[in-house]
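Take a look at my tokenised protein here and describe the backbone shape.
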Amino acid sequence: MARVHFANLSPPESPMLDKPSTTFQPESSEGEMLRIKPQNTITFSRLGNDLVGTVEITNVDTKDVSYKVKTTAPEKFRVRPSTGVLPPSASVNINVMLQQGQQMHTINREKFLVMCIGLTDEISTNPQDLTELWKKISAKSSSVEQHRLKCALPANCDESGLESMFGGAGNVIAGPDQYGVMSGSFGGSSMMGMGADKQMSLLQQTISHLNETTHRLEVQVKRNHRFQWITCVLFVLLALAIVYILKIEIKSHASEYCTTAERNH
């Protein structure tokens, strides 16, 4: 089956995005094997204290397909499920959650890549075998179908309220691989925007460390007290032994003196 390219059907790049349109062209929502909803953009919405986006993928092929979801910022998002197998006509909802403590206001810079390959009878559907298969296969392979999605916040989103839950300003340093495992890392200034969760985690670690230190000090104090008692007991025993020896010596000298005096008389 020939691969159909949808690059020419995609809408132009939004001017609000930080990267030029030449570096990212969204594909159509429907390919030879998968149908993707939403079509081009994952819109995140507030769910409790989280920012969550949902992507529905459907197998429109006549054979089983294996899918894999990658992102430009794996340290920023939690994707569940990120891989799996879809029988024909089956669908799955993929939840994308922004990790608390990350940069909420730069979410529109990130992108997701949904890839899939058709499975034949010779390919095992064992999760370990599929993991190895995705490690070996290249994303640029002609057998891999790709769907690219941008990220966005809703127009009526209250960012001021969410900034208290998610990290503040910081610089993201892009890596060499756009969808690599560690394609982005935070610069030193991002530590200044540590979110509430990270601050609480750091506080808990500090408290735990202080508790361990206090426990060690208490054990040391108990050992010192025990050592002091042992020292006192040994000192008393030594004093008693010295007094006993002195009494014996005095009695011995007194007996010798009396014996000598009797002989002289």
Remarks:
- The mean pLDDT is 76.
- The CA atoms of residues 85 and 229 lie 71 Å apart.
- The longest strand covers residues 50-59.
- Residues 196-264 form the longest helix (69 residues).
